[in-house]
């Protein structure tokens, strides 16, 4: 027996799923009843109690249908009636209330119909009808919505991304053929391809939505916190109760997609990253239209957003700003997670994402002295480092840190000692107390330029008065130069690995060699691994020589690039060659450092 409506035993159900791949329909009791009635339709069951109950329900439905007809007539009469201009608002409000009552009557007319309930349980309900939308919404509110709210609350999607969300539409996320539950951890190789989402609204009519995928767990080492990154952003997505499937990869690049799909990833050492998916309802064309009518939504000018370049940057993406500027309303939310796995590095490399070889490590927090174990405080590696004094971070003394009684001042603009205009000789030393008394410590600072001479009691240090604003600017330039130098050095020392097949197609080889050329122009080191596929075509000796020749032509075409390690391996088998790109540092840091420097102090001898 292979009829999914007739099997009534567990072994028959297992055999049906194994042989046909179908699941039994409705409950086992109903299937057993249908099997015993010899094909009699469900609504013609020969049981007296069942038929009597159906008569009562049919009479009730007849009363509801009469009430529906009366309500429609009342609405028609009210629409045709003429009222004063000042009463037009009251008329529209009354019409809206009457339409809502009409929708409730439509639901009540079919809410107890066993045929309607059976079609809904079998998944055959027409979502264009109010009764099926009502039953689906009620089912979603009973279990799936509380579960969704629990997940996004426990994982702090609210308020990390948006302060408040009240979902009114249900969502289902799937990658390829895998359905993802709310909050599931998805393998990085599975989420590399853009997903498909089923969005089920429960109001009539077609609406336009904006979908945003945001990662709020992007580490920021400098501020010891986290930033936001947008992995996908698209607008003007039409969804209705009967048109619910949205494929991220098939949306129009000109009128819908603002930021294309970026594979989610979490770097090594991090716990996991949350990927929050928000479905934002776009504003209506007529906000005063009745809630029961098929309302139309406003479309977003995607070209203007791209031209403004405000919401096209992935890093630092703030969803709150987009919601406020476009007057969007959060209507749905979903969530999945990603963590570092064996495929993350490959996914990041294929997507051109830097940092695939970076590992985050947590700093150890030293225990307080009274919480240390016995003997732990004597271990040098566990002792807390002493708090540095202000003078330990710099080599020059400031203001009251200067110990000399007399000082010699220099002009900060010329870095020469102040001179007497008449004699052209340096001015005599001044007392430190007198100079500090005339100094405004909010805007200026006294700095000792010459080093101390502890054995010289008559030592008079050379000092100068500088503006704190200028000193801050120089320090900022110095830090920026140091940061840029480290970034360039890390980029130069990074190694890119590229795999090639001896029998690779010509177009694929050209594409990969173009990437090798880009890496070499950036000054990176490139490791090329050449091997043959186990079940693929074996390349000839001429093809192998031609492949290596193509690689060397790319190296010769990049100025400053060289072959660090020649081909090492078996021709036609496994082999490795290492290339090095051109240098990119070239004294850039030195030029910035000279701008940030303070300059030498020229002291004229008296």
From TrEMBL:
It comes from Cryoendolithus antarcticus. Belongs to the phosphatidylethanolamine-binding protein family. Mitochondrion-specific ribosomal protein mL38 subfamily. Belongs to the IF-3 family. One of its GO terms (cellular component) is mitochondrion. Pfam families: PBP. Residues 11-20 have a biased composition (Basic and acidic residues). This is Large ribosomal subunit protein mL38. Component of the mitochondrial ribosome (mitoribosome), a dedicated translation machinery responsible for the synthesis of mitochondrial genome-encoded proteins, including at least some of the essential transmembrane subunits of the mitochondrial respiratory chain. The mitoribosomes are attached to the mitochondrial inner membrane and translation products are cotranslationally integrated into the membrane. One of its GO terms (biological process) is mitochondrial translational initiation. Keywords: Coiled coil, Initiation factor, Mitochondrion, Protein biosynthesis.
